Hints:
The structure is a single chain. The chain has helices at 40-52, 63-68, 103-111, 133-141, and strands at 8-12, 27-31, 57-60, 73-76, 95-100, 116-119, 148-151, 170-172. By secondary structure, it is α/β, with parallel strands linked by helices. The chain starts with 7 loop residues before the first strand and ends in a 6-residue tail after the last strand.
Amino acid sequence: MHTHLPKFYHFIDNLNINNIDTLSNKVALIYRNYKKKPKEKEIISFKNYCKKNNKKFLISNYLELVTKFKLDGFYIPSFNKRKIYSISKNYNNFILIGSAHNFKEIKEKEKQGVQQIFLSPLFKSKKSNRSLGVYRYNQLSKQTNLPTIALGGISSKNRKILRIIKSDGYAGITIFKK
Length: 178
């Protein structure tokens, strides 16, 4: 169905190529920094690098930048409640994804037209002291027909647990760092 969708996503908060140079091109990159909107020059340079190295480049929450620079996709965080019209029809293989923490947010993301839903947080992390856990994750993943991606607290120590959840991939920050 959505064969062009990545299974792995790495969240980045800056557009420094040195930080992602060794990553597999199977790992899509999502710029997620709500405190610093990237400069156009940075976006162009990063986009060109990604295109040359066959890496997918998405931006979170700055839809105008995604459409202006024809990036690979857009990530809608759970707190973004506004109605997003299906912009993916305008681009070939465009990726539209969103995150959810509960049933209500899953349905909200479906209405926004996402192709994949990040369910989070799977595990406790430095950022979040709460977690869905395996059972709740699997229950929530059954509430949608869309592919789900595990997000939150995933590390090399707990990555093996991913085999028992009903996920189509995973996303994170530290799991992809050197």
